[in-house]
Every structure is written in structure tokens, then in C-alpha cells.
Write a structure and sequence with these properties.
single chain; 180 residues; mainly alpha; 9 helices; 0% strand; RVT-Znf
């Protein structure tokens, strides 16, 4: 679009209509808001058809603050250095754990060599051979319960969240308390 066409389009805009505002929910034919429908619409918008791991986040028996944290991780919105920089703060983005690459959510919690050692120790002790997925959501979606005894399933479900919470606490100690 040329600049002149753009200005012509802007000039023909009538602006907002005057009159009384009306609440209308477009997610329902009757205009009635339902949380379930809103969540499904948001889920589809965020993941473009991919299943969102809401049960793994919200139905696990972990503290609510950890569920909120894992939800932020899944949305890649935890305040790692790359996300702080997106807010306009200038930083030299280096992972506080390995110091080798930019600190992103997926690097810090999945691919950092320090983090990989933690995952490796746990998985090896359980006799599990596993390739780390690219993203946090992929870990949550692929964390299978097959072969896990029924009485151990609730504990099994919390393992990724517990590991990530410990990594975040260690990262923050190094970041804010200069603990190495």
C-alpha cells in the first residue's frame, strides 16, 4: 500500500459511532459470556489448534504460585532476560546458570547445560531415556504417566514443575544475591 492510499483510507474512517455502549460477547450466538468458551477461544488463538496443557498446569497437586509460574513458562512469559529486554530494558543477556548463551525460557529450563544435568540425573535414576523437547509446553504434553503405578501418578505429574521451580530459585539466587 502506498502512503497516499494509506492516508485516503485513514481520511475515510468515520471514527467510533456515537451512542450507548452495549456489552456483547461474540463467542456465543446469544451474546452470553461463558468462561469455558472464552478459554477454548484463547487456547485456540494461542496455540493455533495445538492442545494446551492446562490439566498439567492447573490440576497438579502443587502450590498455586508454582502453577502460575509454570503457566507463565508455558506462555514463555517468565521474566528471563530476553523477556525483560522485550520490555525495553537494556541488558547483556547471558544465562545465569551456564553463562554461554542468551537467557530464554526454553534455554533456561530445558537446554542450559546446568539444567540438562539436573534432568539427566533425575531421568537416569528412574531408568528413563528421554530426548528433551524444544519447548516447555511440549514437555508438559509429553510427560507420560504410562508405566507409573496409580498411587505414584500425582507425584509423577509434579516432577517437571518441581524441577523448574528449583531451577528458577537457583537462577534468582545467582541473579539477585550473587550466589554462585
Amino acid at each position: 500500500m502506498r502512503v497516499a492510499d494509506f492516508f485516503n483510507t485513514v481520511d475515510t474512517f468515520n471514527g467510533l459511532q456515537t451512542g450507548e455502549d452495549v456489552l456483547w460477547w461474540t463467542g456465543d450466538a446469544r451474546g452470553v459470556f461463558k468462561v469455558n468458551k472464552a478459554y477454548k477461544m484463547m487456547d485456540h488463538t494461542i496455540q493455533h489448534g495445538t492442545t494446551w496443557p492446562w490439566k498439567q498446569i492447573w490440576k497438579s497437586k502443587i502450590p498455586h504460585k508454582v502453577s502460575c509460574f509454570v503457566w507463565l513458562m508455558a506462555k514463555e512469559a517468565v521474566l528471563t532476560q530476553d523477556n525483560v529486554m522485550k520490555r525495553g530494558i537494556t541488558l547483556c543477556s547471558r544465562c545465569f546458570l551456564c553463562g554461554e548463551t542468551a537467557e530464554t525460557v526454553n534455554h533456561l529450563f530445558l537446554h542450559c547445560k546446568y539444567t540438562q544435568q539436573i534432568w539427566s540425573i533425575f531421568l537416569n535414576r528412574k531408568g528413563i531415556s528421554w530426548t528433551m523437547p524444544r519447548k516447555v509446553t511440549e514437555v508438559l504434553m509429553s510427560w507420560e504417566e504410562e508405566g507409573v503405578h496409580a498411587k505414584d501418578r500425582s507425584r509423577w505429574r509434579i516432577i517437571p514443575s518441581a524441577i523448574w521451580w528449583a531451577i528458577w530459585k537457583e537462577r534468582n539466587s545467582r541473579c539477585f544475591e550473587s550466589i554462585v
